[in-house]
């Protein structure tokens, strides 16, 4: 597939294969699915386009889908998370790939368009860029799409907007909203991998410092929990009064960002919104404050405001850029304000993505098997799939759980309670 792909260097494939082999050994649910797919070939004759962070876990998902008989093409959902050696290994496995690390905005869009030239029947998106393109300029290809899945909060928000405006052209499954996804991927995956990226980039101690977590959804909960575990004093900034109360009862300080700005040593944005940290906040920050983003797009920290406010900037470490302010203070931005866990690290642990990607594979199967019944709407992952993935993980780990007796099931279903 090399002649049909756009990649950096096919010679990198051997080290990419090693990365894929490593995660394969730690993704038992996907491995069980692979055995099933090899036997049943449920995607035979179908083309699947995958727009995700192109690293080893995603590569294994692509191979599992391929084992089900699909032709697979991949592209990146973030140019700084692409690992060129992994992409090269996929091409050697017969999977089309259109991505390389550090792609310019023009190259990034060209890669998205190339994967749509593939004319997919099914898609997996992360952040909604592929779906947006299908609805803006590639509606011819959209007519061929049976349906797809969305991996992350930002993408689900965009799909909800499309559905609300009655413009969604095909059924999509909100994989992000499945219990087996956000309770684990968003909380434990983001929580660990964000600090992996920050620590790898800065090599600074976290214990005893003030960490400001902006946004207390499931990703924010994970980031705050791991910061607390590293010995930080955690401040949470929120707009939702329920989440603010939750953060308070979880033992964190809660305050507006304007009050937290002079206190923070580390700032991590996890909101899914834009311009969350702006010039008025930069003006209040202490010298050598460190900014990182864990939301999907690089818009949560206003890079425009920071660049305009600064009188000088330079790269001081890999994935660390220093902005010098007029009064001499320095603010450090990690990974260009992109997803710090992927742009400056390897992303979520393999065991976490095992759950998320198993949900993706099963959800594609659900769309294919029910395509005559599904409308152009946003669907939740069926509860049966959600729980099946959770059960498979427990089985893979050799863990057993209790089951209800017949009497207990009956008790829970009746309103007539007796002793």
TrEMBL record:
The keyword Hydrolase is assigned to this record: yes
Transmembrane domains' residue ranges: none
Enzyme class label: hydrolase
Cofactor: NAD(+)
InterPro entries given in the database record: Adenosylhomocyst_ase-like_sf (IPR042172), Adenosylhomocysteinase-like (IPR000043), Ado_hCys_hydrolase_NAD-bd (IPR015878), NAD(P)-bd_dom_sf (IPR036291), S-Ado-L-homoCys_hydrolase_CS (IPR020082)
GO MF: adenosylhomocysteinase activity
Every S-adenosyl-L-homocysteine hydrolase NAD binding domain range: 186-347
EC number in record: 3.13.2.1
A GO cellular component annotation in the UniProt record: cytosol
Binding positions for NAD(+) per the UniProt entry: 152-154, 186, 215-222, 238, 273, 294-296, 341, 348
Cofactor note: Binds 1 NAD(+) per subunit.
One GO term of the biological process aspect: L-homocysteine biosynthetic process
Gene3D superfamilies: Adenosylhomocysteinase-like, NAD(P)-binding Rossmann-like Domain
Domain of life: Bacteria
Compartment annotation: Cytoplasm
Pfam (any one): AdoHcyase_NAD
Chief location category: cytoplasm
Catalytic activity: S-adenosyl-L-homocysteine + H2O = L-homocysteine + adenosine
Sequence positions that bind substrate: 126, 151, 181, 185
Pathway listed: Amino-acid biosynthesis; L-homocysteine biosynthesis; L-homocysteine from S-adenosyl-L-homocysteine: step 1/1
Keywords for this protein: Cytoplasm, Hydrolase, NAD, One-carbon metabolism
Family statement drawn from the similarity comment of this UniProt entry: Belongs to the adenosylhomocysteinase family.
Functional summary from the UniProt entry: May play a key role in the regulation of the intracellular concentration of adenosylhomocysteine.
Protein name (Swiss-Prot/TrEMBL): Adenosylhomocysteinase
Source organism per UniProt: Calderihabitans maritimus
Gene: ahcY
